[in-house]
Design a protein that fits this description.
This protein is an all-alpha fold and about 290 residues long. The chain folds into 2 domains: about 20-195, Ferritin, CATH 1.20.1260; about 205-250, no CATH class. The chain has helices spanning about 20-30, 35-45, 55-80, 85-90, 100-105, 110-115, 140-165, 170-195, 280-285; strands at about 215-220, 245-250. Helix 2 runs antiparallel to helix 3. The radius of gyration is 27 Å and the shape is extended.
Length: about 290
């Protein structure tokens, strides 16, 4: 069950409306670094958290609802950046309209054409939000690592937006969002710290079932063999404390060439026995 009132989580003011900046703000709503991603990510993670871990479920749901408030803030900022023109201009959706001309040149036309000068569920390029951005694996540790990455890129986006505007109202809003990203990064790290030994994820899988000779080997993919660069990830105790880092090369073996095609898939280019079957190709290569 969700509740809502009309008060913003944090005040949003725009001193100088800027349609181009409104386009940039769209990334904060529907981009892969945006608020829709984390709001839905935390909510679906909460849905998959069992009763035995209720405190984590409650925390995830609370943070998800906070992120929905951030979507509302971004949408409000977009509207205020777009609606600063006189109403007489906004009402004239016709050729030569200066507001639409400005948006066609530097902004997001769909913010006018599809949303009536308001925010959209898209990124800054107008690409619709994609639910595949959402990571909710059912493994709490895996989800926490995903959340740290989401908050890191979200904070990076907000800092870049902060540097793109001179509007003090927008800087104030973004400074608040940046601060919340700082908290959320620390929050997810705190969960991992409390969970204890989580590496490698999933920690519940018995490591003796994997090929342990490769478990802590940094694998060079250069064609020629090279000496161990003696970096932190090629020597010394592994981060999980369960092994020693080493430096090696791809073991090799087998072939990537498909032995035969599945007849029902109709992948053959010619009729059976034609000049281009595998045997004919082998004969031609041998004779050339």
């Amino acid at each position: 069950m969700f509740y809502h009132d009309n008060e913003l989580q944090y005040e949003v003011e725009v001193e100088e409306p800027d349609p181009q900046f409104a386009k940039m703000l769209q990334e904060g709503i529907g981009g892969i670094e945006g608020e829709m991603r984390v709001a839905l990510q935390y909510m679906f993670q909460a849905f998959g958290t069992p009763k035995s871990k209720a405190k984590y479920r409650n925390m995830l749901m609370s943070t998800a609802m906070e992120e929905f408030g951030h979507i509302e803030m971004y949408a409000t900022a977009i509207s205020k950046n777009l609606e600063g023109a006189p109403q007489s201009i906004i009402d004239e959706i016709a050729d030569g309209n200066p507001l639409i001309s400005m948006m066609m040149e530097s902004g997001q036309p769909r913010q006018a054409l599809s949303a009536g000068l308001h925010g959209l569920a898209t990124d800054a390029n107008g690409v619709p939000f994609n639910g595949n951005y959402v990571i909710a694996s059912g493994n709490l540790a895996a989800d926490m690592y995903a959340n740290i990455a989401a908050e890191a890129t979200g904070r990076l986006l907000a800092t870049r937006l902060y540097e793109m505007t001179d509007d003090e109202g927008m800087k104030d809003m973004l400074a608040y969002l940046i601060a919340r990203d700082t908290m959320h990064q620390n929050q997810w790290h705190a969960v991992l710290e409390e969970l204890g030994e989580t590496l490698p994820v999933p920690a519940s899988f018995p490591q003796e079932k994997e090929h342990e000779e490769y478990s802590y080997q940094f694998m060079s993919t250069f064609r020629e063999q090279r000496e161990d660069p003696q970096e932190r990830w090629t020597q010394g105790t592994s981060i999980d404390g369960e092994g020693e880092f080493s430096y090696g090369f791809q073991p090799g073996g087998g072939t990537a060439i498909v032995e035969e095609v599945i007849e029902e898939m109709h992948n053959e280019a010619t009729k059976a026995g034609g000049a281009n079957d595998d045997e004919s190709i082998d004969d031609q290569s041998e004779s050339s």
